[in-house]
Amino acid sequence: MNYPTIESVIGNTPLVRLQRLGGDTTNTLLAKLEGNNPAGSVKDRPAMSMIAEAEDRGDINPGDTLIEATSGNTGIALAMAAAIRGYRMLLIMPSHMSDERKQAMAAYGAELIEVTSDEGMEGARDLALAMEARGEGRVLNQFGNSDNPLAHFRTTGPEIWRQTEGQITHFVSSMGTTGTIMGVSAYLKTKNPDIQIIGLQPEDGSAIPGIRRWPEAYLPSIYDAARVDRVMDLSQEESEVMMRRLAREEGIFAGVSSGGSIAAALKISKEVENATIVAIVCDRGDRYLSTGVFAAGD
């Protein structure tokens, strides 16, 4: 019997209908459960893609040292992918990220380097490039690596099209590296250019793990504004409230940015009729428990 490997079960995640949060509506509200990937997030897809494609080009070889700046999910996914393929993985992340994320990376054998919360992701990205310049390893650069959106063009987009039988009218995704929204948009627009692509970013002053409102100098180079029909701002509070409601009213245990995606999908649902709205639920809620966000009142 030809049994699957852990790598082969990345993707093909469920697309489920929201039953209560949408209320009385003519729309179909769907959540793509990326937490069902082996390392627990949508980032499993680009992590494996970036390593596998670099290997195929001969850019890296098992045993090499890889470096990446991460706020968490990509780091966990890369740690898993490096373990599968046999690489040393150095991950650089802001110190204020949740303990669960740090412990998960370490569990896969990755080595962590922390920058201060004030330095943030910009500081982590700068340090990764400085380490590469010193010859300490190879930066995969999820923010500028075309193999990131390629993973979603090849897998996430086609899955959504197939699972909705081509009925999708709106796609909603939080934006961090922007790989998910770039790849899915590129695919879905080839199928139906009228599909609306909605990207989400934190409003000024809000801190939502995994997504960013990038300064111009740090805007991911894989991002193409022309591929996004609408950008919506999210508050940290509404994202956290919806995250808790998603668990309590739908039984979907997910992270803060996923709460934001659902909150945005519900706003869009109030504007349209007879639509099929797909939102990315990018990870699981268990990697946020130590932050206390699930214990807070609404």
UniProtKB/TrEMBL annotation:
InterPro entries: Cys_synth (IPR005856), Cys_Synth/Cystath_Beta-Synth (IPR050214), CysM (IPR005858), P-phosphate_BS (IPR001216), TrpB-like_PALP (IPR001926), TrpB-like_PALP_sf (IPR036052)
Name listed for the protein in its UniProt record: Cysteine synthase
Family per record: Belongs to the cysteine synthase/cystathionine beta-synthase family.
Recorded metabolic or biological pathway in which this protein acts: Amino-acid biosynthesis; L-cysteine biosynthesis; L-cysteine from L-serine: step 2/2
Cited CDD domains: CBS_like
Cofactors, names only: pyridoxal 5'-phosphate
Domain of life the protein comes from: Bacteria
Broad EC category: transferase
Modified residues (N6-(pyridoxal phosphate)lysine): 43
Binding residues annotated for pyridoxal 5'-phosphate, in chain numbering: 73, 176-180, 257
Gene responsible for this protein: cysM
Molecular function terms from GO: cysteine synthase activity
GO BP: cysteine biosynthetic process from serine
Gene3D superfamilies: 3.40.50.1100
Keywords, comma-separated and alphabetical: Amino-acid biosynthesis, Cysteine biosynthesis, Pyridoxal phosphate, Transferase
Annotated EC: 2.5.1.47
Catalytic activity reported: O-acetyl-L-serine + hydrogen sulfide = L-cysteine + acetate
Domain Tryptophan synthase beta chain-like PALP: 7-283
